[in-house]
Amino acid sequence: MTRIKGWGHGGEHRPGVRGSAVTAELNDDVMDTFAAVFSKLSQRVLWKRDAKVQSGHPKTRLLIYHGGSHGVMEAIYHGVPMIIIPLFGDQYAHAVRVQEKGMGVMLDKSNLTEESVMEAIREVIDNPKYKQRVQHFSNIHHDAPLKPLERAVYWIEHVMKFGGDHLRPRSADMNFIELYMIDTVIFLSSLVLFLLYVEYLFLKKCYRCVCNRSTTRKTKVTEYESSVIRQIV
Fold it and tell me: Which PANTHER family does this UniProt record tie to the protein (predicted)?
């Protein structure tokens, strides 16, 4: 692991994050902000230039990440609190879930300052609740009858013994109409349109009745007034 302090600011030695989605979003000002914050930390900082997350080191205290599903699951697996800075897509949903569950905090990529980043880091590292919460979910994740490798071996051996036809889902043999229930959608849409048409006819009938009554009343009033006028004259 390498301290961020002392890293160069030019050329290929400039600290950064590799990955098309990440490097396209984090400009030089943001990178300088992170460099300034990391240089003030007493902890060692590993700032990776590639997109592969490695949070399994036993001394890892915090993961600062854009919130991809693989990195979040890896952090939960190893019980590492997170600071999520979502950039696009489902990363926002992951960041919200992490914050709601108390496993970390979310920062807005458009409002990253030295103060906000440092405050978030200090909050997650110094407040034990984040470590406790993510460790709780890590324990849940690990509490399974089989480890992932054991489960993979089991199913491979199962298919080798019995074949995989009985595991083939029914949907694999459905045509497009059956798979996406096009016939059901057409039926329900037709039913809704029919009910709307019936409602339209009913409202139209009610409107005509109201108009006819109003016209009849006006006619009667007019006839009465005319008769009164004739009597007076």
Answer: EG:EG0003.4 PROTEIN-RELATED, FI06409P-RELATED
